[in-house]
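Per reviewer request, we include the raw input and output of the structure prediction for the construct analysed in the revised manuscript.
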Amino acid sequence: MLEGEGLAVIRGERLVFAGVSFALAPGGALLLTGPNGAGKSTLLRVLAGLLRPVAGTVRWAGEDALADLPEHALRLCYVGHQDAVKPGLTVAENLRFWGGPEAIARALAAVDLSPLADLPARMLSAGQRRRLALSRLLMRDAPLWLLDEPTTGLDSASVERLGGLLAAHRASGGMVVAATHLPLPMGDTGSLQLKGGAVVR
């Protein structure tokens, strides 16, 4: 189980949010909603161990998740708002850090990018770059997926395909925390609305 209790973050002189608490069981999904600047991306970065809260605790199976950051990194896949695609590498080469040829082939097939495997990534459209970024979720067996606006740039067919990937991950006991302005193709989700300095459950 992933839990957050009393989380608060200050950036510069601004309180981004405070008093954020939640619990997410295996197979669960939590949608982070709220206006721009409310702290959705910031909370994802806290859960990924990339940013330390000024108050509160993130727990994994009852233990402090951020006490051992390398161990925590093995539990999760984080796809941020930026696609983190290297334009000078091919589509397949962009995944080489995470696994071998077979894993790359499976991941690209899942997001319908197999025909573009040898294409330089600089030639991809915005939606194709987003699909390439999302394919990294499939390169290793991490129980926690952290997604920042995952449907940005995707067409309807790609959004439907993402829904299938999310459903399969959750069916196997995986968890999803996603920041979004738009509905995601997932049923049975929890919601946490951030309002910049406050949280509404």
